[in-house]
Model the fold of this input.
Amino acid sequence: MEQAFLSYCKANNLIADGQKVLVAISGGADSVVLAHLFYRCNIPFGLAHCNFHLRGEQSNEDEQFVRALADDLKCPLFVKEFETTTFATEKKLSIEMAARQLRYEWFETVRSQNDYAFIATAHHQEDNTETILLNLVRGTGLKGLLGIRNKLETIIRPLLFADKAMILEYVRQNSLKYRTDESNFENIYKRNKLRNQVFPLLKELNPSVIQTFNENANRLAQSNAFLEKMVKQELSKLIVIDSKIQKVSISQLQKTEAVDFLLYEWLYPFGFSETAIQNIAESLDAQSGKQFNGNGYQLVKDREMLILSPINSEFEDVLLYETDTLISGSVTLYISRCLAKDVDYKHATADQAYLDIVKLQFPLRIRRWQAGDSFIPFGMKNRKKISDFLIDAKISITEKQNVLVLENGDGEIVWLIGYRVGDGFKIVNNTMSVILIEKNSF
Done:
């Protein structure tokens, strides 16, 4: 088994010569075998054990067993005790998820602080099959059918070449001692139900079902790598990136042969659930204005586009003084002063505001526009609600949320920043001094 272990590590580039590995050790057969393989193959390693205090005195006995094993293997040992039940209650997590979060966060801390290249866990082929089946039952995209990856960032799984029978045979041949977790036989956990109830039935249909699942997962991984390349090419044709905003033409998307699939591949990495993505797909022909939230991102179904943008935190009002150069979040404003006779203000862009200085009351205030805000746009005589102005200008819902106004000291809106100056602040024939405020977005 040592040779199979080394061959698997080499073929999959799991460990380079001289790299130290932190081995997660529970005391069970799988992790004990993994520790012995590192020891017998002369790969530098240390052990990391979590005492979750979930099995009373047995948890403490597991810890003592691991301490003795570390002494036998003459390797460093790191042990951490957790109040798992309390943590799970506080974080509103299942015991399984709480233990998983606690151990991986601690493993990474130990790894980074002690110069270990990787964290090795003892997942094997049965674990991989369980993961595939659980994902299939829960509902998953293609990635969920690939199973457990043998290398993900700082986590490696060097035992994925082995099934449980191979591991137990290695235990028998080498007279290894290990701890048995009696909770593995309790069917209160989903994985235990699969292991204890479903697998025996599947093996009646196909005695090699575990091997078959893992071979299929390997084939799917190759297919997925090819598919990801094709998806990336297709999305690059559809997505238009404007700063931090991504836009997709609805009509162009609907011309593709895999609308739902492409939406999933685009939006899932931004934290949109499968249900949300399905709702987005069903809204493509609906009226504009529908909004959907992912993890820190928002998608808006606009008139002809799907618009994806980060959800901005609350913008805090900022005061702007006469000599400022202001940098505030997503906008930079530069202020300069000049004489009216030296300015070609008639060719100003929407990002430039030439203002009659005598009409300004400093400090000015920069804030988000609000419902009910109105101003007299440059060149007009009557007041207009900003909401109506933005609609007439065909500004998308996403862009509307980020529109700022520059407000005079008396509360009048001087400039709808980046769109239109207020008519009451324009340069006239008797204007002497001019303030130029220029916007630079980044």
